[in-house]
Amino acid sequence: MRFRNFALMIAVAIGACAPPVSTSPDRSVLAELSSSERSELNDAVRRGIFPSESAALSALEAAFAAERRVAPEGDLAERRYLPRQPLPSSSHDVTTLTVRSDVPSHAARAIGEHYRSPGALTPPSTTSGANPLARTALSSPTEVGVLAHDGTVINNPARAIHGTAGDPVLRFSISPSPTPIAGGGEYRGVSVHLQVGGSAVGELPAPAGEQFATPLAIKLYNVQRHGLLSTSGRFVLLDTRTQPVEFGTTGVWRSAKLFYYAYSFSPLAGFQATHLETVVLPAAAVAAPGGPVPWVPGSGIVFAGSIALLDRDATENVFTTQRPDVVVTDNFAGGLFYTQGSSLVLGVLDSRMAGGVRAGVISGFGPDGAYDVITPPPPGAPPSFFGTIGIYPGAHSTAHVVLRDESSVRRDDICWAVSWANNADGSPNPSGMGIHCLATADLVNPALPPFVKTGDPAFGSASVPSYRLLVPGSAGLADLTDALDNDRWSNAGARWLYWMRAPADAVNQGCANRSALRRVNVETGAVQLVKCDAEFFAWTNEVSSTPSFFGFSGISKILPSVGQEYNNPNLNFLISLGTPRSYFVSRMPTVYAPAF
Prior knowledge:
- It is a single chain.
- By secondary structure, the protein is mainly β.
- Helices cover 11% and strands 36% of the residues.
- It has helices spanning 4-8, 10-13, 35-47, 53-70, 106-112, 244-250, 312-315, 440-443, 573-576; strands at residues 93-96, 98-100, 146-154, 164-166, 170-180, 186-194, 200-203, 215-227, 230-239, 256-266, 270-281, 304-309, 326-330, 335-340, 343-349, 356-359, 362-366, 369-373, 389-392, 395-405, 408-418, 434-439, 468-471, 481-486, 496-501, 515-521, 527-533, 539-546, 555-563, 586-594.
- Strands 1-11-10-9-8 form a 5-stranded mixed sheet.
- Strand 20 and strand 21 (408-418) form a beta hairpin.
């Protein structure tokens, strides 16, 4: 693991460095812990994070074994600690961005083709089928990664997870929909766990004067490590403010918000977080009656689905004092927006990326057995469509990929996944789905109209040279993809984009009836299967890279979010139709893969 801001401050930090951990097979990692590191373990035991010192040591041994198993030969574990700084004070600023866009009038017509004739699709039966394992035999693919369970169990209360992220020490997990709690009440919010042992160490406080509505995604920056179990940093949290069920049934969408936070954790002081600032992303304007879609394309965001850090320094974890700008995907408007100071700017508009209409049940298989999902119907759809025809998001997760040769940058791209795209007749459109990349400079170039960057046939097939369809959305490979991220914590691993399809279904290539974590090399286009699993994986909405706990530079550590959208009444219309669902305990897995 190599943080660039660590290198910039090495002169300050060298006195606080922990010694490199020995990789000799006959020596325990525990023998290499410094006195200050052992003191942190004792503080963690006193706080109740570990039940005993032996339990803490066992958790460390297990984590080291998992990372060492994937690390290349000769890769030394190395941890560098920086002096702790106090958390900054909150400004309590609320900034509402001004929308800047210039969208041609035919954009609404092109986007509207996705929703114009859903009745042409044949409504399927909504009853659950047989166990999908009986329909397709399990395959035995070649995998380049290994899966481990760090002990994190989301069970207080048990709830579905949408977004996740982590630093070397902590893992953040986001529950965006209200989950019933035994004994009454509901839960939604962001929980914080240790990445070693999985103990819960805190909950993210909501900004003063309001509550979380639909928190979805989180991106960390300014991450610094202060000890074996001590860390701090900042992050931006996307709260889209609208539940999917509201958008589907009534056409409601609200202004999404970005919450900027500073946080810190140590076994002695516990988890602390300060809300720094709120940025309001304007919602799309309501269109005049009779239009092809109920919003005005380019006027704002319909449904903010995910974010990536736009600023290169924040992406590479170089310490920055300014609020970093972000890229925002719009699930249903066919666009990528980005923030630029006080403005919200439309960067890409592609009618194929506005989501699409799916007929039928999305069937899959997870740790809790077979499941079926029906997504909300198109906005304004008649009641007869409810539970038979649903919309699926277009542009979903996004990542900022920066590749370097020493100090020079050889590639700087914004990449994003499109979950579903269809032609006007309802047939799938693989060229609209899958994984797409565009040079960051082209994304933010005001001289390039947003509708001429990606080769959309509806806009004349114009594109810029930097645009690439990296992985087409062919069935079972990159269709129905929600989750996307790269290892931005490692120069070696940054070129790999990791992705997961949302369902674990029978058509999953080389991984039938299980979930597959795959990766693609952004320079060569080579695709690898990282991990195929049904014991921990279920329905996946996001994946997130995180630094190695012990400091190996040659491994990529990926955190999939184990969502259970099929149990979510705010998404799955089968529940409203009377199909019973219940919430299950979520075990949060970690996948390790070689970075090279």
